[in-house]
Amino acid sequence: MKRLLFGLGFLGLLIFGIGLGLTRLYFVVTAENGIGAVESVSARNDSCGSRRNKRACTEFTASVAFKAKDGRPANLSMSAGSTDGHNMSVTHADLKVGSTVALLYRASDPNNALPNSLSDIWGGSLISICMSFFCLIPALRRR
Which of 10, 50, 134, 140 pairs with 93 at a CA distance of 20 to 30 A? Predict the structure, then answer.
């Protein structure tokens, strides 16, 4: 029974990962390239780490503005990193006001842009596919 459940988990995660990868591939092929500028960086206190290793941290969010190819203004909110400790200054953020960010966006909906980085575009599908193979190992294990 366990082998069946792990096998189904493998198939489910694999199908999800491939589906997400195909939608991202379509997005990348049809997307426009753009460059945005960080307009502001905000900070909020949070808890970071795993369940066993929780620690106080400050998470940073950057507001990125850019113009679509047709001249329409658009915005993107994205992670600007985190640092240990509460109430940390935005000077600890990975992105600073005025920094530039490479973006991909759909011409029809520029406000749903993505940073043009490997992890932002392909991370979800790669993680899902890798997790599916971790389900496959117990499913194939002989007793």
Answer: 50
